[in-house]
Amino acid sequence: MRKTTGIGLSAVMATLLAAGTASADTIKIAFIDPLSGPFASTGTNGLHQYEFAAETLVNEKGGVLDGDTFEIVAFDNKTSPKESLVQLQVAIDQGIRYVVQGNSSGVAHALTDAIEKHNRRNPDDRVLFLNYSAVDPALTNENCNFWHFRFDANADIKMDALTDVIAEQDDITKVYVIGQDYSFGKAVSSAATSFLGEKRPDIEIVGNELHPIGKVKDFTPYSRKIVSSGADAVITGNWGADMLNLGKSVIDNGFDGPIYTYYAAADGITAAFGESGKDRLRLVTEGQTNPPPNDRAAAYIEAFKAKYPDGNMSQTRITNVIEMLAKAINEAGTATDVVAVGEALEGMEHESMWGGTLYMRPEDHQLIQDVLITVHTNEGIDYDLDNSDYGQRMEHRIEMAGMDSPTTCKMRRP
């Protein structure tokens, strides 16, 4: 009798284990960004932030649906659109249905085009593209599609906020605009010229040029032109090594005015500037960390730093991506039907741990959120960057920036 009971119990346990395995799945998210080359530090830190967000905000809280967990799968694209398409296909072949990417709008254009074509040809294994940092306005305008969702403010929205601040500075009468020679750099240049022309027509654009992305080792020739132009301020959308090298060169060559930026923080940039960047580097960004808006945000930063002592909580929008994706999957009741998940994301409102409401605009899949202007300093800093004692302190908040911004998106829905 004991033998019969033992067999029966084993069978029951095996059935329960099998049922548990079947009901709890892993939802894989492909992270396609640079993990080697000149922008490796930016990509690596972003990967760590995604891994931490998935584990802390989803998995440790019981997952989604019936206990499904998130797994971030890293793919090194070397900041190359061509390599990104190779890695995208590898991810799709592995059955991955969610892709996150943010470094380089050129890469984002390649991915969104490829994903739209793939989804049209393969309705049974469609993919969603969650863009967390590629901010070329075209991605949610003429090149928009249903499968692409942007979680960062686009370049025009950011420049609108940045030029509001510049326009208030009466001592700024000459501005030099410089950026990387690709779609995003061109978008920054165009927006700066347009918005300054509207808000401060007296400001003279004394320089407006683009340089090769990731290839300039010595920015001295550019810096000398900036100094000799008599510019009172510099505007740049540079990121990664290009931001660091340009900024240091400009300061070393004697420029002493403010430098208004999109990405002049973390990944070695904050530490490298140190005292030389104090009260001079200004950043248009999102997600309040200094001071943190609530205890939850403060605890999250501290926990991240405990796990990654050399890491930076510099891209708070990554937590928004993970929380909103989890929320959409739960609302849709499925992780495999990405159309249903996309429809749940459309129009979603979400309270960010970093302060303010997030709204995924249905017309173009552009996230609307508060935009901040911060300053590089070591004063009033709760959480520094690069273990440098310096960080970004909030100076201005523009609530729900871009809510009424126009879009030319004509989206075809599945």
UniProtKB/TrEMBL annotation:
Residue stretches spanning the membrane: none
SUPFAM superfamilies with a match to the protein in the record: Periplasmic binding protein-like I
Residues spanning the signal sequence: 1-24
Pfam families: Peripla_BP_6
Highest taxon in the source lineage: Bacteria
Keywords attached to this entry: Amino-acid transport, Signal, Transport
Tagged with keyword Membrane: no
Residue ranges of domain Leucine-binding protein in the record: 26-374
GO biological process, one term: amino acid transport
Gene3D superfamilies given in the database record: 3.40.50.2300
Family, per entry: Belongs to the leucine-binding protein family.
Name by which UniProt lists this protein: Branched-chain amino acid ABC transporter substrate-binding protein
Species of the source: Marinibacterium profundimaris
Organism lineage: Bacteria, Pseudomonadati, Pseudomonadota, Alphaproteobacteria, Rhodobacterales
